[in-house]
TrEMBL record:
The keyword ATP-binding applies. Heteromultimer composed of small subunits (RfcS) and large subunits (RfcL). This is Replication factor C small subunit. SUPFAM superfamilies: P-loop containing nucleoside triphosphate hydrolases, post-AAA+ oligomerization domain-like. The lineage of its organism: Archaea, Methanobacteriati, Methanobacteriota, Stenosarchaea group, Halobacteria. Residues 41-165 form the AAA+ ATPase domain.
Amino acid sequence: MSESAGRQEIWVEKYRPERLEDVVGHENIISRIESYVEQNDLPHLLFAGPAGVGKTATSVSIAKEVYGDDWRENFLELNASDERGIDVVRDRIKNFARASFGGYDYRIIFLDEADALTSDAQSALRRTMEQFSNNTRFILSCNYSSQIIDPIQSRCAVFRFSQLSDDAVAAQVRNIAEREGIEYTDDGVDALVYAADGDMRRAINSLQAAAATGERVEEDVVYGITATARPEEIEEMVTSAITGDFVAARSVLDEMLTERGLAGGDIIDQLHRSVWEFELEEEAAVRLMDRVGEADYRIAEGANEKVQLEALLASVALEN
């Protein structure tokens, strides 16, 4: 395949792991799942963790390990938040589980975003899991395991996927860039890792978007296409506020929000990630974190982003 043809593909899919050993960043989890597969003793599984860390990739890899080339016929992927409702999902599960198949002891049903189901829907799902436990294994994926009812959790082996380490994301970004023949700088990779914040999907998509510009993948390009503020900009804004210079802090904020169109929620997220990297005194850092939490809540409830962020900076400036 030519380089230009390769760039027409979505790299997240092109470089999706084919086997469990290809899943990066979760060695302990993968080794336990590999033992289940080797012993042909797969329980129901519950994968919990943030987006883009490998939950779906692991589920598909399990099917490919168990069924080989027949994995598509024996693996059903459903999205639990589908607007068609749990009744349709249950019908599809029942039809899939009842269908005749040969050569395998069980089929696998992967239910993504299971925490989007109501408690009643989860209760219905629990009964369905019981009904077909003899010939079907369920893999449930969610962001928050606390949203899954206890009767389902107790029927599953629970695996908690954490955010991927910076080293794991950087290694995969470099690997893909080299395989695609993309020029990149170390600063560019660092920027991709920072913007991704442990989300491999976001890192790979950002790499492809940066490569599509035709330029070398470097820091300026990455921050431009990911709509991410530089860490030093966030630090400058906070430092100005802490020293009492509200006007300077507001100027940096205004440039990010108005001229570059960054989202207020993203700036809050970056502030939260960076508070402990600013070498602030502990008391100042704690006060800043308190204000970040309050602004985040208000923005999430629908308050004006710019007003809340300016209020955050004003509060910090007044305290110093």
